[in-house]
What does this fold into?
Amino acid sequence: MPLRDTIKRLRIEPRNTIETTYSVTICRIAAEDSAEDVGIGVVNPYVAATFARDLRVLPSAPRCPIEVCMAFGGHSAVSTPTEQFAAILRDYFRGIPRLDAA
It folds into this structure.
């Protein structure tokens, strides 16, 4: 995990670590810990904005590749709005520079 690797590389020894998939829980724990120490969490932008008053929220653009797929049901034809939406997504993702292209 990149965050864990960064903490290790900086020779920071966390007193406690907690892993959860719930963004609200992550923000609550970080907000509680920030009164005494530093709480760090990675959450989605919506939840981060909700807690912006209680936390210092920093944007992140991790350099980790992800695979994006579109799935269509095989039992019926794809509608015109679906085709248009899929085209918008393809154009969007084609415009993002690939990490392995450099």
Q: What stands out?
A: The chain has a mean pLDDT of 81. Residues 80-94 form the longest helix (15 residues). Residues 2-50 form one domain. The radius of gyration is 19 Å.
